[in-house]
Amino acid sequence: MKVGILTGGGDCPGLNPVIRGAVRVICNAGGEVYGLLEGWRGAIEGNYIELTSENTDDIIFKGGTILGSSRTNPYKNAEEDVPRVIATLEHLGLDCLIAIGGDDTLGVANKLWNDHKLPVIGCPKTIDNDLSSTDVTFGFDSSINIVMEAVDRLRTTAESHRRVMVVETMGRHAGWIALFSGLATAADYTLVPEVEIDMDRMVEVLKRRREKGKKYGIVIVSEGAHFSEAEGVTTQDGEIDDFGHVKLGGIGETVAKLIEERTGFETRHVTLGHLQRGGSPSAYDRVLGTRCGVHAGWLALKHHFGYMVALRGTQVVPVALADAVGEMRALEPNFLEEAEVFLK
Questions:
Q1: Percent of the chain with pLDDT over 90
Q2: More confident residue, 335 or 230
Q3: DSSP annotation string for 33-94
Q4: Which of 25, 30, 42, 227 registers the highest number of CB atoms within 10 A of its CB?
């Protein structure tokens, strides 16, 4: 059996363990594996390398992806690029393509399955943890540990200078990273996309805690957090990527300025940005990524196409690609309720 693997979208700790797991399964069965370089761009341009058990054996501890990645969308220029993807798969004689990525990458895989019956299998990837049909995505644990370490370091300078520190995390549509990081670091306030920013309440919390003796403050804000339309505040510049997403950025700076204006407390902001994607995966993400890769390899051997591997409880199970894409998984209400305990 010949299997292709690609990694698309933002890089993520745990991608290499997935590749390693899938390669080992296919090679153990006597198959061949080819890695398409830089996501769907490699599928369009026909760029690939051969993957073996030997050249993927020690990649489990490496961050990012040895295959490279991109946000290339074959359906942006579908008449030219989709036939090129099909031609690449035919040229390599691939019996299956394992696509590892988020909603955009898996969305393309699902379209190729529906429109052309290309033999695809999906593996969910995002540090944002916002993909439906799976309980946890690899990369999430690594990212919140990075945020936690950063906030722990920022806390010392905030306390020394009696400042409020506003830390902007990733999270376009859902506040998983921000909320979990806020809980893990005892942040004074956390802002997430699921709830409109209430400046009055946040200012009241920060002032009350200062009056009771706390000489500094920590606020964590997800990049997708937003004000109500009535506030008339926006941080979007209107620029969009290949998949039609508006590029975000700047909410942390905006919130920091408003806090300082309304409280008089010296306030600074830090945008962690791509630091959250970098470095070696945590032990949890190495294991989860490996398990996902193994199960994706098993699905390929069974010709179980049009499906995605997903974590349900402690089990990795197949779910239909169609059920897994197109809908973001927002923070569940119970997590928001638990966080509310610490705003009193």
A1: 84
A2: 335
A3: EEEETTTHHHHHHT-EEEE-TTTTTT-TT--S-TT------GGGGHHHHHHHHHHHHHHHT-
A4: 42
The model's pTM is 0.90
141-278 under CATH 3.90.550.10, yes or no: no
Tell me: is residue 274 an annotated ligand-binding position. Answer: yes
**Cα–Cα nearest to 3, from 301, 274, 251:** 301
Q: Which of 101-115, 227-241, 304-318 has the lowest mean pLDDT?
A: 227-241
* Per-residue model confidence (pLDDT) at position 240: 56
CB 182 within 8 A of CB 176: no
CATH code for residues 2-138+281-324: 3.40.50.450
Residues constituting the chain: 344
307-312 vs 315-320, strand pairing mode: antiparallel
Give the tokens for residue 130. 């916002």
Residue 238 predicted with pLDDT over 60: no
With beta carbons less than 8 A apart as the criterion, state whether 5 and 22 touch. Answer: yes
The answer to whether 237 is annotated as binding is no
Give the residue range(s) of CATH 3.40.50.450 domains in the chain.
2-138+281-324
Q: Is 163 annotated as a binding residue?
A: yes
User: Where are the CATH 3.40.50.460 domain residues in the chain?
Assistant: 141-278
Known catalytic membership, residue 128: yes
Instruction: Count CA within 13 A, CB hemisphere, residue 214.
Output: 15
Transcribe 286-305 into DSSP letters: HHHHHHHHHHHHHHHHTT-T
- Label residue 334 exposed, middle or buried (CB < 10 Å: 0-12, 13-18, 19+): exposed
Q: Which of 95, 128, 141, 188 is catalytic?
A: 128
Residue 146 backbone dihedrals phi, psi, to 5 degrees? -65, -45
